[in-house]
Design goal:
alpha/beta; globular; about 50% helix; single chain; Rossmann fold; about 15% strand
C-alpha cells in the first residue's frame, strides 16, 4: 500500500541534524507517528538527496557507512516510490504549468501520479494545493495532520 503522505528530504535530514534541536525533535516525533501508522512514503529522489545531505550539511555529518545504513532503514520503513520516466515527464509539466522548480516538481509528480494527497516539507508554500496535492510544513506550530 502506498502511504497517504509523501515526505520530503528535509524532514529526514532534520532527524540527524543537531543544529536546530526544535526542528530535530519535531521531525523525529512526526516521522515516528507516521511510521507507526504506516502512512508515509518517500521517493527514490528523497533517499538519494537524504544520503547526499546527511553526509555533508549537518555540523556533525554521518559517516558514509552510517548514512548507507540509514538509507536502508528508511527504505524498509517507508513505501518507496521509484522516479520513473513518467514521473520525470510529469515533473516537467509541473515546471511549465505550475512554475515549480524541477526538484520540487519531481516531488509533486511522485505524489500526484501515486495519488498521495499530502506532501510534508518546509520547502513549499504551506497550504498550497497543486492539482489535488496539498503541501504542508509540519515544522510550523500551526500544523495538524
Amino acid at each position: 500500500m502506498i502511504g497517504s503522505v509523501l515526505l520530503d528530504t528535509n524532514l529526514l535530514v532534520y532527524c540527524y541534524d543537531r543544529s536546530d534541536l526544535t526542528k530535530q525533535q519535531r521531525a523525529v516525533e512526526l516521522l515516528g507517528a507516521l511510521a507507526s501508522a504506516k502512512s508515509g512514503a518517500v521517493s527514490t529522489q528523497v533517499l538519494a538527496e537524504f544520503f547526499v545531505n546527511v553526509i555533508r550539511k549537518p555540523p556533525e555529518p554521518l559517516s558514509v557507512d552510517d548514512a548507507l545504513r540509514e538509507v536502508d532503514r528508511h527504505s524498509q520503513t517507508w513505501t518507496v516510490i521509484d522516479v520513473t520516466a513518467a514521473v520525470v515527464r510529469e515533473a516537467l509539466r509541473g515546471v511549465r504549468q505550475h512554475r515549480l522548480n524541477y526538484w520540487d516538481a519531481q516531488i509533486w509528480a511522485a505524489a500526484f501520479l501515486n495519488r498521495i494527497p499530502l506532501v510534508l516539507s518546509e520547502d513549499f508554500q504551506d497550504g498550497r494545493v497543486v492539482e489535488g496535492v496539498r503541501f504542508a510544513n509540519p515544522l510550523l506550530l500551526s500544523f495538524h495532520h
